[in-house]
Design brief:
This protein has 347 residues and is α+β, with helices and mostly antiparallel strands. Helices cover 45% and strands 14% of the residues. Helix 3 crosses helix 8 and helix 9 (295-316) packs antiparallel against helix 10 (322-337). The chain starts with 21 loop residues before the first strand and ends with a helix.
Length: 347
């Protein structure tokens, strides 16, 4: 069965205001409330509201239990390595890193012929990135704390093994795309066939430059893996890291997270060379030292993300809109356009 790509937030990795004010239809609310009754007391269908309109239980919700405590509820079709994700979050939380822990994870929600995953976390009353220098400093500080803690994560070997398995699959796909470029036959990419024909030059850059084996690079360790604006909340003077699903199979130097953060938080707005360099300096100040060279890593991340989508399409029949592929091209183009800024910032 084909399913639409599931975005983390209503606008993907560039989220808007967090208003959980959407009413939830009766059948959906009852299905969620029935599962929550197994771990929370006093939750009713009427106490559940959604971040965005939903037609089935897959989505992001807020609920209040009988004690007046607010909870964030996520229902997803994704089946990540739950035990590893739980261990990562527990390790970081007990190390004092600003993360939102999983209180109840992997609860099963039956909906028609599907089994969905339901997770419950404390509700963080925060906001997404406003563009302030102070928030960039706090984000850098949280990333530094996260990397120090993850360098001592006892489950690192499991994550590295998962990263190795994914790298093998990504390398297979890279070779497949080589063959497609040679023959001009992109039918194996399904709904992306037309897009691939139009963007063959970009795909050629990918297969020539992409290295799936970041886990073999010096300093590789467990990282967050996906530091974009949708995965960070600013609350009580701290930058809280969310969503560690990617962390279960990304093993790379800390430059991976830093490249993600610089590109998504500092280069996402056209503010000019001097001002953008100042924003990068704020992130550096919070991180507590010079940042490593990041240009190549930015490109590797974009190629990595695109290849993961191609693999998922092949394995699961994922229907991905062209706008998602266009994002990968934009991310590599951003690096080229930002060369002067990155040089000014020493990156």
């Amino acid at each position: 069965m084909t399913s639409e790509v599931e975005l983390g937030w209503p606008s993907g990795d560039r989220p808007g205001v967090l208003n959980f004010d959407r009413p939830v239809a009766g059948a959906v609310a009852r299905a969620i409330a029935d599962v929550l009754a197994t771990c929370l007391e006093g939750v009713t269908p009427a106490s559940i509201s959604a971040l965005a309109p939903v037609s089935d239980p897959a989505g992001r919700f807020r609920t209040v239990d009988g004690c007046g405590r607010n909870w964030f509820v996520r229902v997803t079709r994704r089946r990540s390595a739950l035990d590893v994700e739980q261990a990562l979050l527990d390790h970081l939380y007990h190390a004092g890193v600003a993360v939102n822990p999983l209180r109840f994870a992997g609860l099963e929600l039956r909906w028609n012929d599907e089994t969905l995953r339901l997770d419950v976390r404390p509700f963080v009353n925060g906001t997404h990135f406003s563009g302030s220098d102070v928030e960039l400093v706090t984000l850098g500080r949280t990333l530094a704390e996260c990397h120090r803690a993850l360098a001592e994560f006892e489950g690192a070997r499991v994550v590295r093994s998962a990263a190795s398995r994914r790298a093998e699959r990504l390398e297979d796909m890279r070779q497949s795309i080589w063959g497609m470029l040679a023959t001009g036959d992109f039918a194996a990419l399904g709904g992306a066939e037309v897009w691939a024909r139009v963007n063959q030059n970009w795909l050629r850059q990918l297969v020539e430059g992409f290295d799936p084996w970041m886990l073999r690079r010096a300093g590789a360790q467990c990282v967050h893996g996906e530091v974009h604006a949708g995965n960070v909340l600013f609350a009580d003077g701290r930058a809280v890291l969310l969503d560690f699903e990617e962390a279960t199979h990304v093993f790379a130097p800390p430059a991976w997270d830093l490249a993600y953060a610089v590109q998504r938080f500092c280069l996402s707005a056209d503010l000019g060379v001097a001002r953008t360099a100042e924003r990068i300096a704020c992130l550096r100040r919070g991180y507590g030292g010079p940042l490593p060279p990041l240009v190549e890593t930015m490109r590797q991340i974009a190629w990595y993300m695109a290849t993961v989508v191609f693999v998922t399409k092949a394995d699961e029949g994922l229907a991905t809109p062209d706008s998602e592929f266009a994002k990968f091209i934009r991310l590599t183009d951003d690096v080229d356009r930002a060369r002067e800024v990155l040089d000014e910032a020493g990156l």
